[in-house]
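Q: what sequence does this backbone want?
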């Protein structure tokens, strides 16, 4: 295996020989298929060695085709200098050279008018071609600038590319109920092409040849941005919508700065440079709207955006002859854009996963005192949550930032590139290719219990490299009693804080083996036509069997009634708080009080009333699960039906915390039900404001204990942790629709 351009050897390329079947072999194969599943014609694969060498043994005589592939090299044979290698094998043959053509790379930076780097800019790479005399422009690759304004687009085949700084990356934030729209940058820019042009025709293409390392830098002009606020008419509740803005025929980064309420149809398009645009909104295949808008520096408020139902156009295409062709249908279609997380100012972290393959690196905020309270505590419990995730690039480099200062765990998962996206049977019977990478924790361990912590200082930059070992993978067999046993099987390694990291997903069918999974303990999640399954398995080296017993996919349904017949104003929700992952899903309550969660994950859930102020769950019962402390466990094959009584009999508690004769800012105030053993109401915490004030709203009427703590890391949902504070706690009774005021002092003051 050699590089077509440099002549250097290529290691770890997958070389495949395929035997061309003879007519007799074709007939035998067809007859065998009638009798049952059979393996395809002879095809073997190996990985090239350090010097590019490869070897196949035990091949029968015949005509063979030799192929090779590796990320970063062209897999097609229309590249000049590449030819398909064919061999008529009657005896052993050697010195057969296979060549691969390296792909190209474009990298660069984006800076503003002051020379400062700009992060989160979406860079699009377009190609143009002429078909039937008409030019078509296609976006082939894209990248997002890091905190230094740098970007890298790799895996480019030879050709001409047109680069565009298309806008701020971000994704649509789709929320339910009274969710708070996600904030955005107050600065924006008009999209530009490489070289500073505003239109496609004004830019100069970047020529990429085999192995080209090209560069393209952008200088953009940041201006104060405006916001378009409005509501969609004829909107179908809970449906996602794709928004786009076009100016002079050029589109801003589509669907990248939008907040959309899935219950009210309200939307905000942020980070819009002032100007004249055509605004388009597409609701899947259901509806579409398009109107011209003028965006001033103050933005647009109260815009009404009509959505019109999609139209199916039918017709008949006639030949110049006696018979018409089959009628054809066409309909508009737009897919939803992916969502991206917000970026907060802080620090940077660099990692390099040395696997030779694309790796997925996650950054976890641990149970550490040095990390900020909002990210470490949820509901008064210490939690370990995912702070950042990213993929390595073609060089194995990884960079995230900015991130908040604190202490983190780092975990990396990866798969051999030739296993990614492939069916589980792809390399069956070839042990040399059945390799895997075990889940690896910083600095260099596969044991979650030995995971080290990475401390990130405020304003600093931290270097952290990960070396992932390769091991012989386990061949997994799915033992399924179902007649048509197929679906997807996902393997999650359980790591620090009980968090699950996805190690790999494979599709399986009947008796076909699954390969490319490293030995270890996993939570296996199976989904298929027969239902779903979750179980913990230990996979040792060699072969392993996972017994698949499909259970009906669980769902959560329920009905809400209102105490004393008092209903809330607005749209109430039952919010299902997933205490396993510290996430939540809002379920709208219809006019009959019914709600439904169709495809919930297996987890522990705590229902709460959301979307309206002053209401809480006063009583709750369930069939299919046991309610304990206001929460329940959802199990496989066990649908849960809830009966909830909601009440507005709540009050308010507010006051001041004093440190001697001065207000005490940043102090933890805890309000806990007096009868902790039986109360389904969880304790609540409040961090005092700069004036020492605290304010608990929507507190269910009842008896409570109120106390302060001079440490913000108190795990106040833990009964043992708060026990020392209860002796000096202040008893408080909250009356319905009343306001109670209490002044507190710091302990010992």
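A:
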């Amino acid at each position: 295996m050699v590089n077509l351009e440099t002549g250097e050897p290529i290691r770890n390329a997958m070389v495949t020989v395929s035997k061309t079947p003879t007519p007799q072999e074709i007939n035998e194969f067809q007859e065998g298929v009638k009798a049952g599943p059979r393996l395809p014609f002879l095809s073997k694969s190996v990985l090239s060695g350090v010097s590019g060498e490869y070897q196949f043994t035990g091949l029968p005589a015949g005509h063979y085709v030799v192929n090779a592939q590796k990320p970063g090299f062209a897999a097609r044979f229309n590249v000049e200098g590449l030819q398909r290698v064919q061999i008529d094998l009657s005896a052993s043959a050697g010195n057969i050279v296979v060549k691969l053509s390296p792909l190209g790379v474009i990298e660069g930076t984006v800076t503003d008018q002051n020379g400062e780097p700009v992060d989160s800019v979406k860079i699009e790479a377009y190609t143009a071609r002429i078909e039937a005399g008409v030019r078509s422009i296609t976006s082939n690759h894209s990248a997002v600038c890091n905190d230094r304004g740098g970007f890298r687009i790799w895996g480019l085949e030879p050709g001409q590319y047109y680069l565009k700084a298309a806008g701020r990356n971000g994704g649509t934030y789709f929320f339910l109920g009274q969710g708070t729209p996600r904030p955005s940058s107050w600065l924006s820019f008009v999209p530009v092409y490489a070289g500073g042009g505003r239109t496609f025709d004004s830019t100069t293409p970047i020529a990429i040849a085999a192995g080209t390392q090209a560069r393209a830098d952008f200088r953009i002009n940041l201006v104060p941005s405006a916001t378009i606020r409005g509501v969609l008419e004829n909107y179908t509740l809970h449906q996602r919508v794709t928004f786009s803005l076009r100016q002079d025929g050029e589109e801003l980064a589509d669907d990248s700065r939008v907040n959309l309420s899935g219950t009210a149809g309200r939307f905000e398009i942020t980070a819009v440079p002032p100007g004249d645009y055509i605004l388009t909104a597409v609701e899947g295949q259901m509806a579409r709207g398009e109107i011209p808008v003028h965006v001033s520096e103050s933005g647009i408020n109260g815009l009404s955006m009509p959505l019109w139902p999609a139209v199916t156009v039918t017709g008949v295409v006639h030949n110049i002859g006696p018979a018409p062709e089959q009628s054809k249908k066409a309909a508009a279609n737009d897919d939803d854009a992916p969502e991206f997380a917000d970026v907060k100012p802080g620090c940077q972290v660099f990692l390099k996963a040395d696997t030779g393959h694309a790796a997925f690196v996650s950054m976890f905020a641990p149970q550490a005192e040095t990390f900020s309270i909002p990210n470490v505590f949820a509901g008064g419990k210490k939690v370990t949550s995912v702070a950042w995730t990213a993929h390595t690039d073609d060089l194995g480099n990884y960079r995230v930032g900015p991130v908040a200062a604190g202490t983190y765990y780092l975990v990396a998962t990866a798969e051999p590139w030739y296993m990614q996206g492939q069916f589980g049977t792809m390399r069956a019977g070839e042990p040399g290719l059945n390799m895997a990478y075990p889940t690896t924790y910083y600095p260099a361990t596969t044991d979650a219990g030995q995971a080290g912590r990475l401390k990130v200082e405020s304003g600093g930059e931290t270097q952290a490299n990960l070396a992932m070992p390769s091991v012989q993978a386990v061949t997994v067999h799915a033992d399924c009693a179902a007649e048509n046993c197929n679906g997807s099987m996902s393997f999650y390694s359980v790591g620090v804080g009980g968090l699950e990291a996805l190690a790999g997903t494979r599709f399986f069918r009947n008796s076909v083996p699954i390969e490319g999974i490293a030995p270890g303990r996993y939570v296996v999640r199976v989904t298929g036509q027969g239902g779903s399954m979750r179980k913990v398995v230990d996979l040792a080296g060699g072969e392993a069997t996972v017994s698949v017993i499909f259970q009906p996919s669980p769902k959560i349904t329920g009905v809400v009634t209102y105490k004393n017949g008092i209903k809330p104003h607005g749209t109430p929700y039952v919010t299902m708080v997933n205490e396993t992952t510290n996430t939540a899903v809002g379920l709208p309550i219809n006019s009959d009080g019914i709600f439904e969660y169709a495809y919930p994950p297996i987890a522990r859930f705590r229902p709460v009333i959301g979307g309206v102020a002053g209401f809480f769950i006063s009583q709750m019962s369930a069939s299919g699960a046991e309610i304990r402390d206001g929460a329940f466990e959802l199990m496989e094959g066990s649908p849960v039906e809830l009966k909830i009584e909601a009440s507005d009999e709540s009050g308010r508690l507010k006051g001041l915390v004093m440190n001697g004769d001065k207000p005490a800012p940043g102090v933890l105030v805890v309000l806990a039900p007096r009868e902790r053993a039986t109360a389904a109401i969880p304790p609540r915490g409040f961090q005092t404001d700069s004036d020492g004030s605290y304010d608990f709203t929507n507190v269910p009427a009842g008896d409570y204990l109120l106390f302060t703590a001079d440490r913000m890391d108190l795990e106040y949902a833990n009964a043992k942790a708060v026990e020392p504070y209860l002796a000096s706690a202040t008893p408080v009774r909250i009356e319905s629709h009343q306001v109670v005021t209490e002044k507190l002092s710091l302990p010992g003051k």
